[in-house]
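Q: C-alpha cells for this one, please.
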Amino acid sequence: MRRFPRPGRSARRAVGPGTVVALLAAALSTVGAPGAHAAVSPSTWYTLVAANSGKCVDAASAATANGTAVQQYTCNGTTAQEWQLHPAADSGFYTIVNQNGAQPAIDVDGPSTADGAKIHLWSDGGWSSQEWRPVQESGGAYHFVNHNSGKCLDVPGASTADAVQLQQYTCNGTSAQSFSLNPAGGGGTTPPSNPDNPDLGPNVKIFDPSMSSSSIQSTIDSVYDSQESNQFGSDRYALLFKPGSYDVDVPVGFYTQVAGLGANPDDVSLTGPGIHVNAGWSGGNATQNFWRDVENLSDTPSSGRLEYAVSQADPFRRVDVHGNMVLDDVSSGNSTSNWSSGGFIGDSRVSGQINSGTQQQFLTQETSMGSWKGSNWNMVFVGDNGAPGQSFPTYTTVDRSPTVKEKPYLYTDSTGLYNVMVPSLRTNATGPDWTGGSTQGTSIPITKFYVVKAGDTATTINAALAAGKNLLVTPGVYHLDAPLDITRPDTVVLGLGLATLMPDNGVTAITTADVGGIDIAGLIVSAGTTNSDTLVRIGPSGSSADHSADPTTLQDVFFRVGGDVAGKATRSLVINSDDTIGSDLWIWRADHGNGGTVGWNTNTAANGLVVNGDDVTMYGLAVEHYQKYQVVWNGNGGRTYFYQSEMPYDVPGNASWTPGNGINGYASYKVADSVTSHQAWGLGVYCFMSTNPSVVADHAIEVPDSGSSFHDMVTVSLGGDGTIRHIINDSGGQVTNGTMTQYLTSGP
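A: Here is the predicted structure, written as C-alpha cells:
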C-alpha cells in the first residue's frame, strides 16, 4: 500500500530554476569536480545508462502515473529516458525526476528498507525514499544510494533484458548498481561533482580491487622511484587502498602515506611483498629515513617478515601484521652500520615477533605483539599486550596509557561514501582499539570537510574554518601569509601524504582558541625564511579552561626548522591549553639539509616545545638540536611517555651556550622551578658536539627537586664528541669520550 506523508515532514515546495541553481551551488561549494566540470543546469536532462546491460533507465510505456515502473530499456532517445537531478534539503542528496508529465520522481515503494523493493515513479513529495546520493566510482560512473534505506539502485540479477523493473539492494559494488550519467542527446553539461567523492588532487592515488594489479603496481613504483631518496623535496603522495585484497609490492619512500580506506584495518588486505622500508638509498643506514606513514590496513608479507627500517616521523598505526616485523635494514646488505633511530608503532597488532635490531630507541603504544626481541638504549612500551616486562636498562614498560585518543582516519563506508572517523578518548587503555570490533568514535561525513588543495591560501582555508568546516589537507606544500585560526570546538584538521604548511613573512602557521576537542593530525609544519615567533600555538596565552573530558590532540605532527629552506622560528610548538595530548611529535631543528639551509646563524631556533598549560600529556616526544632548551615545561601535572633528544651539533662553544648562573650549556628537558608536579618515563638525551667536541652541558634534564618523578633515563655521548656531566639535576654519571653511556632508573 502507498504511504502518506510522514508526520512532521511537509511535501517539497516547488522551486524555480534560480532556486535550484542556488541550492546546487551550495551543495557543491566545498568540493572540486573530478576535472574541469561545470555545475548541472536545471534545464539540462540526462540519461542514466546501466553498466551491466548498456540499457537506459526508463519510465515504462512513457507513463507518468503514480506507480509507473522504473525499468531498464534499450536506449531510444525519448523523454521517458530523460532525468533531472534536483538538490534535496540534505547536502549531497538529489530527487531524480522524469521529463514527462508533471515530472514524477524515482521512488522506492513502501517506503521500504528491504532488499528487492521495487522502484517506481511517484509525485515528488519530498520523502527521503525519493532522495538519492550519487556516489562517483573510480571509472566515472555512479551508484545511487537511497536516503531512506541506505541501499543502492540495482538491476535485479544483473539482467540485460528489456523491461526489467529496477529495485533497491544492499550496495555491493557490482556493475548491476553502476550507472553512467550522460547529458541527453550528447549535449549540455557534465554531471554534478559528488560531495561524497571529492577531488583529492593528482597526488592522492586511490586503488580499488577492480583495477589490474599491474596498473596498481606501476603507480606504486612510479611514486617510489621519485621519493626513495627525496629527503628535502616538495613532492607529497598518498596511496589509498579501498576495501579489498591486493597482491602488491609497496616500498614506502619520503613524504608518502600508505593507508587503507576501510573502517577497520582488516578491510584492506595486502599480500605478496607488501609494505617495506629499507635504507638502500643511504647504504643501509636508516637514521635519515624520515617523513613517511603507514596506517589502517593489514599486511601478510610473503617473506613472513615486514621490514620497517625507519627513524623519526614514520608512524605505523592501526596495522594488522600477520607475521614478524624487523625495525632495521636487513635487505640492503649492510650489517655493520645499518643504524636506525626511531620510532613509533601505535594501535597495531603483530602476530609474530618484533625485532628492534639496531634501533637506538623506540616506542610502541596500545599494540599487541607475539613477542619483542632486541634493545639498545631506550625501548618504551605503553599500554601494550605481549611486551617485555619492566627491566631498565633498557626496557620501560607502563601497563596502561592513562588518557589517549587515536588519530582520525579517512575511510569509505559500505555504500562507498567517504567519512573521517575520530576515535573516542580512552582512559587506562591497553591494546588496539579495533580488535574487539569497530572503533568507537564519531564518524564525520566528508561533506563536513573543506578539501584543501593546490591553490588554496590562508584566506580560503580560514573562510572554510569560519563556515564551520573541518579540513582535509591533500598532499602538497602550502605557503601561508596568515595563521590558520581554529576557533570551533571539535574541529578536525587531517593531513594526507605528509601535507606541509610553511608560514611566510614570520606568521604563525596554526593558532587555536581555548576550546575542547580540536584534533590536528598528519601534518609537517616547516619554518619559512623569515623568523616566526611560534609555528603552532594551541590556545592563547593565559588559557585556563578545563578540557579533561574533551582535550585537544595532536597526532603525527612534525616540525622542521631548516633543511628544506633556511627556516627560522623562535619556538616551534607552544601549548597553552590545559589537558592537551600529543602523540608521536618530532620537533626538529635541522642538522643537515639542502645547501645553505643549516648553520648556527642560519636556521636559528631557540626552543622546540614550550608547555604552559596544566595536565598536558606527551606520548612519543622527540625534540632535537634547538639552540637553547629543547623543551620548556611551565605547566603543572605534565606527563611524558618516551622522550628522545639530541642537543645541537653546531654549538660554537660554551661561552655562547649558557643560561647563566654559572651553568654550562642548556639542559634538553627543562621543568620550570615553579612547577609542583611532573612525571616522565623513558627518556634519552644524547650529545654529538661535532663543531666543538669540548662543549659541556652540566645537565641533560633539569627539574624541581620536589614534585618531580622521572623514571628510566639514559644519556649518550655519540662518538665521545661532547660531554653531559649529569643526567637529571646533579644525579647520574658523566658521559664523554671514554664513558659514552650512562643510565639512571629514577630521579631527581
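A few notes: The longest strand covers residues 492-503. The CA atoms of residues 366 and 431 lie 4 Å apart.
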